[in-house]
Design a protein that fits this description.
Layout: H1 3-11, E1 17-21, H2 26-37, E2 42-47, H3 49-58, E3 66-70, H4 74-86, E4 92-95, H5 100-107, E5 121-127, E6 135-138, H6 148-164, E7 171-175, H7 186-199, E8 207-212, H8 214-218, H9 220-225, E9 238-240, H10 244-256, E10 261-267, E11 273-274, H11 282-295
Parallel strand pairs: 1-2, 1-4, 2-3, 4-11, 6-9, 7-8, 7-9
Antiparallel strand pairs: 5-6, 5-10
Helix pairs in contact: 1-11, 2-11, 4-5
Length: 298
């Protein structure tokens, strides 16, 4: 599976609008430029109007292709972009040159924010070289040490995203360092609990197995070698990590060691949020946009 296919799928979805908070950012405008070229969406760009216009000109984007809304500062840019999504003027929120904390403060605002009562969680999709399917990793950026109930919501968020790109029954591997329950290892206890909750219909629309170590979550050979028999082991679509440290290390290992391509969104809000890092490439931002557009179709 290729992320290029995700771009094509997003292009088939018409009428989507992306609200970008503090759009005066070179990498963001590069992603916007490519997205416009591919006819992925229309854009509302909030921020310093002159700086945004200069970047658009440098990329050969006509001002008629976007709507630019002046904002006094980053806080107002975040507020206006979030309000646009809240009022259904836009269907995707995108972070520009604004601190994550500033954007999330607006997202969580009780008056005009995007709260749903669900936890917000980071869902990343990877195209790994020589791997035959997409791999999702969650949560590598939002929740530090989620408890069992938070992990349930993280699973639900990631399953919705996976379904949005066409995976009908996502297979979720609840990761731990071992594949047996160890009372001294909370991750293994939570993984077993999630598996049982799934079996009893408390978590629907997916298959969950755990605890599973990374090798027997993604390799059939490793799972067979360990004698693990399940519909998830060796063929997981979603890797549920126990803590943010595990997720962060796995995420960056896939990028820097495996040279994987990635897109990511924040799920659990009223609309998907593209919350990429300033170190992410314009290509990664484009894939994240495509994932957000696909997952905004509900």
């Amino acid at each position: 599976m290729k992320l290029e296919n995700l771009l094509k799928k997003a292009a088939e979805i018409k009428g989507k609008v992306v609200a970008v908070a503090s759009a005066e950012d070179k990498e963001v405008i590069e992603a916007v430029s490519e997205a416009i070229t591919r006819d992925l969406a229309r854009f509302m760009l909030f921020g310093k109007k002159e700086a945004i216009e200069d970047l658009l000109i440098s990329k050969g984007i006509g001002k008629n292709s976007v709507e630019i809304i002046q904002a006094r500062n980053k806080e107002q840019a975040a507020e206006l972009a979030v309000r646009a999504v809240h009022q259904n003027e836009a269907s995707v929120l995108m972070k520009g040159n604004v601190p994550t904390a500033t954007l999330l403060k607006a997202v969580l605002n009780k008056e005009y924010g995007l709260r749903t009562g669900r936890i917000l969680s980071h869902v990343a999709i990877f195209e790994v070289p020589e791997f035959t399917k997409f791999v999702f990793v969650t949560d590598a950026a939002m929740n530090i040490a989620p408890d069992l109930q938070q992990k349930v919501q993280i699973v639900v968020n990631s399953v919705e995203i996976a379904k949005a790109i066409g995976i009908e029954i996502p297979k979720v591997a609840a990761l731990a360092a071992v594949e047996v329950v160890n009372p001294a290892m909370q991750a293994s206890i939570d993984a077993a609990s999630l598996t049982m909750m799934n079996m009893r219909g408390q978590i629907k629309g997916c298959m969950i197995d755990g605890p599973l170590a990374l090798d027997n979550a993604i390799s059939l050979d490793a799972a067979r070698h360990k004698g693990i028999k399940s519909e998830v082991a060796g063929q997981a679509d979603i890797l549920l990590v126990p803590t943010i440290e595990v997720g962060n290390a796995l995420y960056k290992s896939l990028i820097y060691f495996a040279k994987a391509r990635v897109g990511a969104v924040i799920a659990g809000a009223k609309a998907p949020i593209v919350l990429t890092s300033r170190t992410d490439s314009s290509e990664s931002k484009l894939y994240s946009l495509a994932l957000a557009i696909c997952s905004s179709e509900k």
